[in-house]
Amino acid sequence: MSSKLHRPIRIGRIDYTNVWPVFHHFDESALACEAEIVREMPAALNRKLRAGEIDVAAISSFAYGQSSDRYYLLPDLSVSALGRVQSILLFLKSPLEKAIHGKIALTTTSATSVNLLKIIMEKFYGGKPVYEDAEPSLDRMLEHADAALLIGDHAIRASWEKRGYRVLDLGEVWNVWTGHWMTFALWAVRRETADSRPDAVRSIYEALLASKHASESDREPIIRKAINQIGGTRSYWEGYFSNLHHGFAKEQQAGLALYFQYARELGLMDGQPSLTEWPEAKAAYSRKSQVNL
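Structure for Chorismate dehydratase, as requested:
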């Protein structure tokens, strides 16, 4: 027990651009606790947090809903959008009317997006396609499928290539049908870690909030980073980061609750997830809010 209490806190980090505003100014070496960064795709972080291989992570909202009794939410942190998100995209080789009853190739990297697609296909459009998992390569995915789902930077790059496919932005489709926000990822901490090491978790949480506030105050560093590492134009990235929201207030919570409801109705999720915030977060959040007034 002693070694577990004193080992470094393991922090799961996705390197997709949609989480850069929260992580860009985050420096684990400046924390008041010893910490290690574990960089993985969203699906791998989902598994590692559930298994206790990491302690804190940005995970898929769907994965949080599946195991909400094991986690606390770190308040006011998410990846959300009210409409277009530009990085959760369905590429249609066939007409939509055929694809909803045809075959759709799925990226294996994110649970939230895959299940959002199933909700859209089955609940909104009344379809029942066959789904097959595939590596995120658009050409290979569409060799034997009517449509392909890509997320993150794979989706962004593919959207620039103008291959003639119709492209559906799942954030936009969700908003058109429901009028709600869509929350794709949440920051969660294992309850046992938060209960046994609250000071360490507080240090991490305050640093994440500070990084988010710094990015909100000045997007220039992450825009430059995106242009240099991924390509694209300044206007594209300005629009991209403007469309994203990294808080988690009542409006985002209502949209996620509806997503969970639809997932349960389609048999994609069992039980009623609880959006339980870390009990000690309020004091940390209040301090950071006062600093950034």
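The chain has two domains: 2-81+182-291, 88-178.
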